[in-house]
Design goal:
mainly alpha; two-stranded antiparallel sheet
Length: 360
């Protein structure tokens, strides 16, 4: 019997079983993840602890943005990653600078910029076959940058130049961590493929699908945020982009949306517990590093579980940067934003069918 002739109740039962199984089981192992997890944890923790130790606890947690450089290209060989990491760091810095510039222009500029950054980052990610985690962290860095450098009561929350210097410095440190394995002769002697071969530029059906899906998420997400709270637009868009930012079919996209919602709800609870602990900033840096380590270990095998740790990690950064303490209201807002974004992303995935090109 073809899928079109299967009774609706049976199809819904099968899909519910599929989602339940995905939430209660781990995916297959993809090999050793701990080296990448360790690099990501160090890239997250060391700059924060260093800034806190130097007396700049007020900006220490902002250095967490540089750690996102490490999580791209984890499947590459060490020499290849050493070439690729600076490209990612530069792209993230550009997004941070775009967020700072947009914040100077007010709410309208931030919302418009969110749409542009989302569409452009998704288009580039699809064009060069970027791979996981896709364009979502570029939009996240843009949104964080706009929020922490926004003008409130006539003054900036964080000085833009200091913020950009922290982003640049932490990104540079992340690149050094990626290069560090080349100190071992066996990695220096290993062959390395050219980046143009690893990331071939092709504007095919996959790239067009990712861009169209991301465009729907960007426009609908920003409009929804404009009605609720414009300052939260990037969180809604990121939640939707996490669903459609990778070349997955409709079923997998819907499953990712459910994982995103479930993981964020649980992660919001963990955030409240962690944020209420009387930890100094240097200890928060170690905590952030620990969260990042666990995230990289589990994200490829259980997306919802990874979100349980990603949510408090990002919320702790936002809370420290804006000087706002942890509250139930803040956690609830992020849960609502994630639910909205996940629904928007799922609708975009269901609306635009993915057609895999040969070789994809």
């Amino acid at each position: 019997m073809s899928p079109d002739h299967v009774p609706l109740r049976a199809r819904l039962r099968a899909e519910a079983t599929h989602v339940a199984r995905s939430l209660t089981t781990f995916g297959p192992s993809t090999g050793r993840r701990w080296p990448l997890a360790l690099q990501a944890a160090l890239a997250m923790a060391v700059p924060i602890v260093a800034l806190a130790a130097s007396g700049r606890s007020d900006i220490a947690l902002l250095a967490a943005t540089g750690a996102f450089t490490v999580i791209y290209g984890g499947w590459l060989r060490p020499r290849e990653r050493a070439r690729f990491a600076p490209v990612v760091a530069l792209a993230l810095f550009v997004c941070a600078a775009a967020g700072v510039l947009a914040a100077a222009g007010g709410t309208g500029s931030v919302l418009a910029g969110a749409i542009v950054v989302t569409i452009v980052s998704a288009a580039v990610a699809g064009w060069v076959s970027l791979g996981p985690p896709g364009p979502v962290f570029f939009v996240l860095v843009y949104g964080l940058s706009a929020q922490v450098t926004a003008i409130r009561d006539g003054a900036r929350v964080v000085d833009p130049w200091i913020y950009l210097a922290v982003v640049a410095g932490s990104s540079l440190f992340a690149c050094l961590l990626v290069v560090a394995p080349l100190l071992l002769p066996r990695y220096r002697r290993a062959p390395a493929r050219r980046l143009r071969d690893l990331f071939p530029a092709r504007w095919d059906a996959v790239a067009r699908t990712l861009t169209l899906r991301a465009s729907i998420v960007a426009v609908v997400g920003v409009v929804a945020a404009a009605v609720v709270d414009p300052a939260r637009s990037y969180w809604i868009v990121c939640a939707g982009l996490a669903v459609v930012g990778m070349p997955v079919g409709r079923r997998d996209a819907a499953t990712r949306g459910i994982h995103r919602a479930v993981g964020t709800v649980l992660g919001a609870g963990l955030y409240l517990v962690l944020a209420l602990l009387p930890l100094p900033v240097w200890a928060l840096g170690l905590l952030q590093g620990g969260l990042q380590f666990v995230i990289e270990l589990v994200v490829v095998r259980h997306y919802a579980l990874a979100l349980v740790f990603i949510t408090p990690l990002v919320l702790l950064i936002i809370g420290a940067a804006t000087g706002e303490g942890a509250t139930f209201t803040r956690a609830l807002e992020r849960v609502v934003d994630t639910l909205v974004g996940a629904v928007v992303g799922t609708i975009a995935a269901l609306s635009v069918r993915l057609r895999l090109a040969p070789g994809r």
